[in-house]
Design brief:
heterodimer, A: Aspartate Aminotransferase, domain 2, 3-stranded antiparallel beta sheet, 16 helices, 12 strands, B: alpha/beta, Aspartate Aminotransferase, domain 2, Aspartate Aminotransferase, domain 1, 7-stranded mixed beta sheet, 4-stranded antiparallel beta sheet, 15 strands
Amino acid sequence: MLSEKSLGSLIRDKGREGRRGFTLPKNDVENVDLGKVLPKKALRDEKPRLAEVDEPTVVRHYTNLSRKNWGIDTNFYPLGSCTMKHNPRANEAAAANPGFASLHPLQPEKQSQGALRVMHELQGFLAEVSGLPAVSLQPLAGAQGELTSILMVKKFFEDAGDSGRTTVIVPSTAHGTNPATATMAGFKSKEIGVDEHGGVDVEELREAVDGTTAALMITNPNTCGVYERNISEIAEILHGSGAFLYMDGANMNANMGRMRPAEAGVDIMHYNLHKTFSTPHGGGGPGCGAIASTENLAPFRPDPTVEKHGDEFHFVRPEKSIGRVAGFHGNFGPILRAWNYIKMHGPELRDVTDMAVLNANYVRAKLGGTYRVPYNELCKHEVVIQPPEGKRALDIAKGLIDHGYHPPTIYFPLVVKEAMLIEPTESESKETLDDFIGAMLELAETSEEDLEASPTTAPTRRLDETRAARQLKPRW
Amino acid sequence: MARFTPHTEADVREMLEAIGVESIEDLFADVSPKLDSELNLPPTLSEYEALRDVEEAARENDTGLPMFLGAGAYDRIIPSSVGAMLSRGEFLTAYTPYQPEVSQGGLQVIFEFQSMISELTALEISNASVYDGANAVVEAALMTARLTKRNPKVAVSAGLNPRYREVIETYGAEIVTLSHNNGTTNFSEVPDDVSGVFVQNPNYFGIVEDIEAASEAAHDVDALCVAVCDPISLSVLEAPGNLGADIAVGEAQPLGMPLSFGGPYAGYMATKEEFVRQLPGRITGETVDRDGKLAYVLTLRGREQDIRRARANSNICTNQALTALAATVYTALMGPEGLREVAELSASKAHYLADKLTDAGMRLRYPDSPFLWEFVVEMGDVERANEALLDAGIIGGYDLGDGAMLIAVTEKRTKEELDAFVEVVANA
């Protein structure tokens, strides 16, 4: 084991030719000479320039890297729209169970009844929470859940022989994935504005909807953290012209047990199991973007879904399926964790929503007055604020780091200048929130010069992001 | 109050008062329509009870047996240090590294992952990973269309994993299937209007293909060549970048990820520097901070959905940071020699098994085609053979549905298990 000081910072710099970090079992059959069984030109001449390191060095290297990273485990992480709640460790124990971890996705159904049962039960739980009966667990992330939903809508119209549905309407507050998804699915996306509550402008929507409209992509509560109070009317406008209401379910942590999208007129939605049901974000993935829809869109779900026939569980291809969106059945790890999370809550999922909404409103109440609150009314699980006049969201965010808090989402939603979107989640205590509020109030009084210098206590100071793009260096 | 939420009744009272409302219900005054009944979910369980149910469901699966299934996911040895690093809460419970000052660990891991993929593929730029191998394939198909300014129409080898092919179809790209001779794809009939030519290596039937022939065929019609490669195989097989491939993609699951019933895995994507603007997904780059200290940051963000919205090159938002960490730690532990040993052990055992099966009177479907660790055996009634294997405590190969079994052999299999396999299927 070498000391850190004599080495560069990358794993490869810590190696030396001939070092090994792992031993494999000895070969108990005859060695095959690849030069004899494969064409010569198929073989590699030079070995790849990878790290050659021992196990102690590997463990120390990645452990030390982890210490340059913040997670929910180490810091309050109120990143709006991302639902950074505590990840119960029972879920990790569940996913590590060898009865699941070593199960091959192509084992016959008879050999994987336990996994199929978990999937079937989770489909049922997600149907209950949304009120939408037809679930698919296959999409591998929220953005893929969006795409799956919009492809299902597209296929519905193709199947109905309606070739004129070329447009998807997206409010200006939408997540960037919404318009990107519409494009990817082959639709034109049409943007509409928001009203004084940050909600979809109903009059503008009425003008925008016509026979070319396939769907509206709505987020509820919207990305300003405000409940879409006209959602039923919005659904009626769309349904009146034969279009669908799709809901981005990123914010379901505000709805569980308090409202169900189906009863508000939503036809199809995606969940982010890694947000609402607390499967760890892992630094950006893996996730699961399960979808739920009404019965009339059910035949178009991805292949396969799980059904119970008698006492047995089976994979079934929905009749008019859009096809497959993942290599196998979806991200089973997050599926298993979400199943376990829901079972540890049961109907008490409503308490999760209640406490998440309580925490966000508490932060709103305490910061209002010092910070500007553009939609100063009841918020749901998150609140959007703006810094005091003359201060920048970016500087407040970097200042928070020196107070030990991960910054909120900044400059989103786009409709609010200098937006700071704060989502405390239900995991945080009043003391944590009070300390955070104290830091925010202090930052409001901190000189612009000091703010601009922050952070000074993090593993790095502010970065030269332009240089990263102009002198691209994405590898050793 | 539930165990994952800290508030006491007194906390709730004080907070409601600060907000200026009477009750929790008042916080939902704006919600309509309201759900006025309790969610119909099973009763709340303690952790112990929930994990007992997990164990019960786990026992309804057949696991812990020698495995001969592959077809895109492989039962390989995973060093204990991989799981130990993944369980670090700082990695496990972080979000996408939007705030680089407090995400340097995750960013450097991605930088190392990208470097490792670049080295294996001999292509200059790798992204931070995508959802899985199938999605890497479809994103590459769409990428060829953007780069050639043609419609997404791809010529795929008959040896492309059929699940990858299905995902390409779902995403709306047109597919032309190339014929094969004895399991090896014939690249002489590529139509001249395709955007990409896909070659999988080793292919779905385990056969080592000629990437150079695929890239020449692609370039002859001004299309791009996409090589779909098993990353373990790249320790012994020539890198696709050295054989003319423009894009290399694949499933990173064999690099330290458990089978987990199909996911989470990670897809990798690498390409030439000139094509970087059309590469989807996150990319981490090196830079410096204000003090001139080396640091890492997500870069070329202008390609992505949160900046470009409807004009983004993909709607992809997340990468698979945690499973990419698994691949990075696994590869570091193995090193180039360890990866080569994994490949050679697997190939040795696979060839041993193929020889023994042939000796026992069975026939390989493609006897003259070179393979590494996966091959196709004519078996007649595959279902019956697999049932006999399960009775003997063995998970058999993949039923191709036409009287043949696709058999995968990894470094985990022992001679004893291989001999037992032969004995069972020879008598089935």
